[in-house]
Structure prediction request, 430 residues.
Amino acid sequence: MKFGTDGIRGIAYEELSEDFAYKAGNALGGLKEKCRAVIGRDTRISGEDLSNAFCKGFIDAGGEILDLGLMPTAGVAYLAIKHACDYGVVISASHNPPEYNGIKVFDGEGHKISESLEREIEDRISGKLYMRKGGAKIAYDNGEAEYVAFLADKGVNLNGVKILLDCSNGATSRIAPEVFRKLGAEVTVVNDSLDGSVINDNCGAVYAELLSEKAKEFDLTFSFDGDGDRLIALDEKGEIVDGDKNLLVIGKYLKSKGLLQGNIITGTLMTNIGIQREIEACGICFDRADVGDKYVLRNLLAKGGILGGEGSGHTLILSESTTGDGVQTAVVLSKIVSESKKPLSALAKAVTVPQITKSIKVSDKEKTAKSELLKKAIEDIKKEFKDEGRILVRPSGTENKLRITLEYKDENRIKEIVNNLTKLVENLEL
Prediction:
């Protein structure tokens, strides 16, 4: 197994076995003498077994690892910095279904590790084991309280604000409600079970639209994914405010306060062109990175920006956190709504271009993406769209799927094209 756009990921116990987790832990612990790390996980049933195996490999290599137990991804990154660790490790498959799990690794600055370090770890996993004395695993029970204090200590007053939280039966289930109650909000929570068999199961950020009707009863609705690094909001009208619109709302606010460092926002190849136009109309530069929040981060660091993200809900606000943090983003959006005394629907208002994304299961995503028939179809579509639309076809970074995204002024036409491309891909599978 190899690192993808968001760590290593696969079917738990099959593709991602305890033996593999042990070797991954040993490889990371073997990177340096007396290596120190924190580790956290989401609620998946396989999480504890894989975490224990990873820790065993790490301490056999002589490393010391603080076990945080259940913890959102961004919480692990924050606590890695707070406790002066070399690395932060997350056992999670983020937004993927319950049968998946994964391994994410942060460096001591709370950033996802470089591709060169990913390759080094992959090489070490397939090589010899490191066996050193002096390793230790320490159960650390105060991490949740420290992370909640970090999120809630922002001077935000949400007294009287009615908020609905969907915790996706994942890692934010205890933390997000506590944070918003500390901020004074009237909080209602759904899908806050710690039952990992239903994590992301028709709930959370991937299925945020299921709350469209219920959201009309609240001022704000926030829907997280399993490990809490994504946020999809809904406004008081029950309309989706995705990661693209997060950038617009937060970017305009930061610019108005003189806080938008670099006067630049980084989206991805999939960011709606309508959002780009709205951002540029505010006098803000807009840039695109490859799909994946680690690529957004690298772009921001290279160009001196602090705000970037993806439509899927990863939003990076580097003035607040070192990585995508769904709960932190929700706090920031709440603060903006509260200060402006405007509803989220008004703040997020934008003229977007119709966009459709379709995920198609395939047997070999890389091979299918390189099909000459598919390439020819894509070129024909580009000629038809000219400068009035976009098409993006890419292998998923976390699943064996091909993702097709189209933007064009004629929604009926892109629906037709998506159907045709789906049939083409399915025929390639025969």
